[in-house]
Specification:
This protein is mainly alpha-helical. It is built from ten helices and no strands. Helix 1 packs parallel to helix 3. The longest helix is centred in the C-terminal third of the chain and has 25 residues. The termini are far apart.
Length: 213
């Protein structure tokens, strides 16, 4: 198992090491650390959680031609590295259903899936989440903020991926919704603090926007 996890780390580094969208190797590193911590607290299978965390963004459709292409890439890598078939099935199920996709989520079917989804969402919250939001928005050419661009309250997956928005709008369209979508007890504890940090940031942001600080 350690051999497979070490190989997965190296693979994720090779694929995502130079990514400039906020889905780089260090995002994977943090999600893996969080997933392992939550797995221990919740009694989940540590190996499956860690492997899914290490591989989840290798398959991300934002970084591949399609969701199917990304899933196939991960499946091929696991087969080449002799990951047991049962583990492959569980990992592919996790990474194919854990993405936010505009809030049109399919509930995670396993404890391990819930753990990895919580870990990934926690890295989209708090100070790290704030930093990643502005990195990603710059990466895709979005403005920091524009009061004339309305927050989208409901979206299809296509609208979420391709519609017009801003970095600040993203907090209301996704990030501030994550706290209530956490799966595990320990994940909810961590999310509460990170949620407060984002609310505080937005309070200060809008004061500065209007020149009141």
């Amino acid at each position: 198992m350690e051999r497979i996890l070490e190989a997965a780390e190296n693979y994720a580094k090779s694929v995502l090491g130079l990514d400039g969208s906020g889905h780089d190797w260090w995002h994977i590193y943090r999600v893996n650390k969080l997933a392992c911590t939550i797995a221990r607290e919740e009694g989940a299978n540590l190996f499956i959680c860690s492997l899914a965390a290490l591989l989840h963004d290798v398959a991300d459709e934002k970084l591949n031609g399609s969701e199917e292409e990304g899933i196939q890439k991960v499946n091929q890598w696991m087969n080449e590295n002799e990951v047991p078939a049962e583990v492959c099935s569980q990992v592919l199920n996790i990474i194919s259903t854990m993405s936010f996709k505009g809030g049109n989520k399919v509930p995670m079917s396993s404890l391990e899936g819930k753990v990895v989804q919580d870990a990934d969402r926690l890295d989209a919250m708090g100070a790290i989440g704030i930093a990643r939001t502005f990195v990603y928005s710059g990466h895709i050419g979005q403005l920091i903020y524009d009061p004339s661009i309305q927050v989208r309250n409901s979206m299809t997956k296509e609208e979420y991926r391709n519609g017009r928005s801003t970095a600040v709008n993203h907090f209301y369209e996704k990030l501030l919704k994550l706290k209530n979508g956490m799966n595990t007890s320990y994940g909810k504890q961590l999310a509460a603090r990170r949620h407060e940090e984002m609310e505080h940031f937005l309070e200060v942001f809008f004061k500065e926007w209007e020149g009141r600080r």
